[in-house]
Specification:
rod-shaped; about 30% strand; 11 strands; alpha+beta
């Protein structure tokens, strides 16, 4: 043997005692168990937070929907109250006749005739108490509204030659029309006529009784006409 070569001491490489191996294994198992439990707890917490957040969103949506319903109900109630307090009620013509709206005193009587094929397509008679005819002659109406299958110029042309009838411009529902006043209309019952164009038709308002001049003006002021 070479006296310079170191001698290996194999006695220092003794094996690890089996007791220590068991402790190390149990430590690893314990660490894994703790990690599993911790992951489970975190998962449960995360799920709970997500569920709470979703519940909160759903509650907010439900509350918003309820608030919207409550607001709509309040608006409907206000509208109904206003309608109940209004001294007027409405006639709204069918869509094919232009859907014009005529408001008149709610305590007035009304009679309407709608005829698609006639020259007079709509005839609305308005008067306090009854719309009465005596011995075949109608009473003088507070207001008569008619929709004619005639253009405005065609309807108004005959009045130009009647010197006892005065012509003036008037605006009804933001639509320019024509007003006629006088005492010698072709129909002796008439004392005032307002004519307004509705596309290729003409809507006329006729006053036959000066007693209801104020109501006639109110009807004109509140009428709604689609151009």
């Amino acid at each position: 043997m070479d006296p310079q070569q170191p001698v290996t001491n194999f006695s220092s490489l003794a094996p690890v005692p089996s007791g220590n191996k068991n402790l190390l294994l149990w430590a690893l198992v314990a660490a894994l168990a703790v990690g599993t439990v911790a992951f489970g707890i975190l998962s449960i917490v995360a799920f709970g937070q997500a569920h709470t957040a979703q519940t909160t969103v759903n509650q907010q949506k439900t509350a918003a929907a309820k608030a919207a319903r409550d607001d709509q109900e309040k608006q409907d109630a206000i509208a109904a109250e206003i309608a109940g307090e209004s001294p007027f009620r409405s006639y709204i013509a069918p869509l094919e006749y232009g859907s014009f709206e005529i408001k008149f005193p709610k305590n007035w009587s009304a009679q309407v005739d709608e005829e698609r094929s006639n020259t007079v397509q709509v005839s609305l008679l308005l008067h306090p108490d009854f719309v009465r005819t005596q011995n075949g002659v109608p009473d003088l109406y507070g207001t008569k509204v008619q929709l004619l299958q005639r253009e405005l110029n065609e309807y108004t042309r005959p009045f130009d030659s009647i010197k006892t009838v005065k012509r003036a411009d008037i605006t009804i529902s933001n639509i320019k029309g024509v007003e006629f006043t006088g005492t010698k209309f072709p129909d002796k019952r008439d004392i005032r006529i307002v004519a307004v164009p509705i596309r290729d038709k003409t809507l006329i308002f006729v006053s036959e009784d000066a007693t209801y001049a104020n109501e006639f003006n109110q009807i004109l002021a509140q009428s709604k006409i689609l151009p």
